[in-house]
User: Which sequence fits this backbone?
């Protein structure tokens, strides 16, 4: 009985992690798509789009730095 509960809990944890990874992947794809947005023909919104692009780039740099730190720990 205890082992069955442990297996169910582990399965639920794996499902939760899989969904979280899927969400992170989708967010990254949306960010990459946004980075590809051209501001060439936009006057009013170009400034804000460029600011948002810079924030995304900074976040990605930080994420890459975190991954490098994890690799060093192993």
Assistant:
């Amino acid at each position: 009985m205890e082992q069955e509960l442990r297996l169910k809990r582990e399965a639920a944890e794996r499902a939760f992690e899989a969904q979280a990874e899927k969400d992170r992947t989708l967010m990254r794809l949306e960010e990459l798509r946004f980075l590809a947005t051209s501001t060439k023909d936009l006057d009013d919104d170009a400034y804000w789009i460029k600011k948002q692009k810079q924030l995304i780039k900074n976040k990605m740099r930080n994420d890459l730095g975190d991954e490098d730190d994890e690799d060093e720990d192993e």
Q: What stands out?
A: The radius of gyration is 19 Å. The chain has a mean pLDDT of 87.
